[in-house]
Amino acid sequence: MKRLHVHVGVNDLDASIRFYSTLFAAQPTVTKTDYAKWMLEDPRVNFAISSGDHAAKGIEHLGIQVESAEELAEVYGRLKAADRPVLEEGATTCCYAKSAKSWIADPQGVVWETFHTTGEAVDYGQGPGLDHLVSETAANACCAPSLAPAPVSCCG
Questions:
Q1: pLDDT in tens, 24-43
Q2: Which tens digits make up the pLDDT trace of 99-148?
Q3: Which of 23, 55, 65, 129 could join 50 via S-S bond, C-beta 3.0 to 4.6 A?
Q4: pTM
Q5: Cβ–Cβ < 8 Å for 112, 90
Q6: What residues does each domain of the chain span?
Q7: Is the domain covering 3-140 a CATH 3.40.250.10 domain?
Q8: What is the rounded CA–CA span in Å between residue 21 and residue 104?
């Protein structure tokens, strides 16, 4: 079963943890000095926040988290059919998790990741450079907003 993923960059992690814990009526399932994640069932979402130099503020990216390699192959097929540049990152460590993932940007430049988490990691890791996905989207879109390259975080 797939799960929506939302990652938001925040200025004040502690205040944001308090806010989202109240909003979701749940404590984070993962808490680090620069990161927190809620694996919610209602609604079924992986909601993550992060602070620090690696985090752009506001919505960083959206995603689809899957529970198996078979589901990941299915979603990868959809990415390839979407007729947009795809960055196939493969096995990686980010957001204190080991995952297999790929990235795509929609026609407006909104970055999406698709991933299957396979385990935990002791460090945050880092995401790939996604500027080319966003810049190619902006170059091909009429009236697209100017998107300044921002540090890209990843999570899962």
A1: 999 999 999 999 999 999 88
A2: 999 998 887 788 889 999 999 988 888 777 677 676 655 444 433 333 33
A3: 55
A4: 0.71
A5: no
A6: 3-140
A7: no
A8: 30
